[in-house]
Amino acid sequence: MEGSKAIQHEIGGVQNDALRFGLHGVKSDLVGSHPLQSAYESAKKTQEEMKRKVLANTYGTSFPLKMDLDRQILSRFQRPLLPSSMLGLEAMTGTLDEFGFEDYLNDPRESESVRPLDLHHSMEVRLGLSKGPVCPSFM
């Protein structure tokens, strides 16, 4: 055999397998986030920086570094193929106390318009045998 007989799903850097990955939307490329969302994210970032400064002044400069290492470790912990809830990271950052839209409008991943999880494709992507997102999103 002269070479591998794999079918390329990517042409020019764009995934063109519409049956597997869905149709590509242009709206997400053109429209940015809502101004209120960007203001919320910048305020959240400023609040985290202030919290780090207070902790550094109170407990010493090594304490925020230890918290960063713990955050990095907990953010890497996931289940192999299924989406993880990141309970340890949520407990450390304090987001368990927040009441988000998914708490009263249901998690979007549990919607009827979500494609079922293809475990075989997810494992192929993790092993580098296939290209594309590990977990396809909405239909």
From TrEMBL:
One of its GO terms (cellular component) is nucleus. Keywords: Chaperone. Coiled coil: none annotated. It comes from the Eukaryota. It holds the Pfam family UMP1. GO terms for biological process: proteasome assembly. Belongs to the POMP/UMP1 family. PANTHER family: PROTEASOME MATURATION PROTEIN, PROTEASOME MATURATION PROTEIN UMP1. This is Proteasome maturation factor UMP1.
